[in-house]
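Ticket #4471: structure output looks truncated?

Reporter: J.K.
Steps to reproduce: submitted the chain below (607 residues) through the standard prediction queue, then opened the result file.
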Amino acid sequence: MINKKAQVTIFVIIAIVIVAVVVLFFALRQEKINVNSVPSSLEAPYTAFLSCLTTDIDLGIRILESQGGYIDPPTFEPGSQYMPFSNQLNFVGTPIPYWYYVSGNNIQKEQVPSLTGMSDSLASFIEERINKCDLRVYESYDISLGSPKASAVILEDRVQVSLNMDVGISKNLESASVKNHEVVVSSNLGKLYDSALKVYQQEQDELFLENYGIDVLGLYAPVDGVELTCSPITWDAGEVFDNLREAIEVNTLALKSKGEKEDYFYVDLGVNENVRFLNSRNWPSSFEVDSSEGQLLISTPVGNQPGLGILGFCYVPYHYVYSMRYPVLIQVYEGAEIFQFPVAIVIDKNRARVALTSTAVEREIPDLCMYKNTFVEVNVVDYRNNPVESDISYECSGTTCYIGKAENGVLRAEFPQCVGGRIITRAQGYKETSYSYSVTNEGQAKIYLDKFYGLDVQLKVDGRAYSGEAIVSFVSNDTSATILYPEQREIQLTPGEYEVQVYVYENSTLKLGSSITQECLDVPKTGIGGIIGLTEKKCFDVEIPEQIISRALSGGGKTKVYALYTMLEKSNSVEINAPGLPNPTTLEELQNNYMLFEDKVLDVNFR
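Returned output as attached by the reporter:
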């Protein structure tokens, strides 16, 4: 983490190219609009209005294509250590809902949008934006805009939008009023969605991405094999996982839908459009291997046990069982338009997951969420009792239902009945709050949210300003914030008690020499003694290679502080003075620094 620097990867380059091409495409393509019903002297402002409408349609189409058919993604669901997926993949800053994923509590879920749902969300998007059309340049005209009602139809090669909205324009003695507005935008959204659906269904039926993953596992990790040796064979599980991450990234990108059918990487998808598959080693993933030795995978030899010495040789068989979970982003594209959606790849105990038998494409609605029948009023405020606009969900027995938005801090809605449930409240700029609340009868709940305050971190070591590398953490019972200084200088805090921890690192050339761990086994004696089962002790060495520590602990400490509301409101920065430690030149000195660190106390001041 200390040495981590920003790197330009192939995925960032692909994303930049995608954005540039898409912008060019939407800038050059033709839209069909009609202004014949407006006098020529009033055409300019009406044409500008239609241009706003067309721009909104273009933007809505781009969002649908880039976010897997969604304009407003489903309510965020976090993953877990066992299943690292949330229900969204963050791709260069864009949250894309998974079409297939496994929830944190190990439930297979689909959230594939329907074409009708996409059309409805596009219409709603237009209704929300069209009244924001900036017509101030036409201030010499008298322009009035009524309430919008839109409908959209997504076809293979175009999107048709009908907008019912009173638009009145007048100047001098001329006036015009137009209520119905029709715009046709050239787009392959419908065709790309249909092809994406075919690719997704083929993956669900055949699990071809999982099967490629199993091939990668067999090529880049010790799974099954035999080697002729009388000494144990060892692998480092961490290195194995790193190799797998790199191999999955490269091999996934090599998959293609065009080319020679004999090519190993060719996938026959039955669609005319091009299809690209992406994975990044930096995306959420998990890799596990069954091993009783922890980080080391050790396979012991056969042939040196009592009674087997007559074989005259030894061999080491090994068999390891892996579980891998990682995302793949699928892009279906033609020309400049790209429709993309992610899926979760799950390989459990060296085998592909069980394919879903369901072919439904609508988002799953838990049974609990279908029976909202008890009225509850929720009031959301900050510590000064100011209302806070927020999103309200209700969680019961591991199932979370989205209830609605607390407009101006108030939500009046029906909740599902549950004893021991929790109201989950999320608001931009505030800490997420979980409030225990049983829904058995109609009632009220008042929820207080803690605001995040951004503070500039000013770090000193022995009273002098420090610009080297350090890890700064503010840890409390229910939340924590950590920054890598000096690349990050702002920390987000809410009121509460924190343990502040600072680890200061300096450049080091400290070298840890290689070491050898000895392990002994009982092996058959040579000659007749081995035949009758007599044994003797044989030992072997497990070598750990030398390491160079390029960053060594050279300062820091801990302390506890309580951040009050008033303190955070009035402060712009937090100044931390950390004691220095000797720069270690030997392993003993480095170990001594870690012991000294525990007794060092920080000086923390809010300013």
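Triage note (M.O.): checked the attachment and the full token line is present. Residues 1-8, 21-34, 303-313, 358-365 have pLDDT under 50 and may be disordered.
Status: closed, working as intended.
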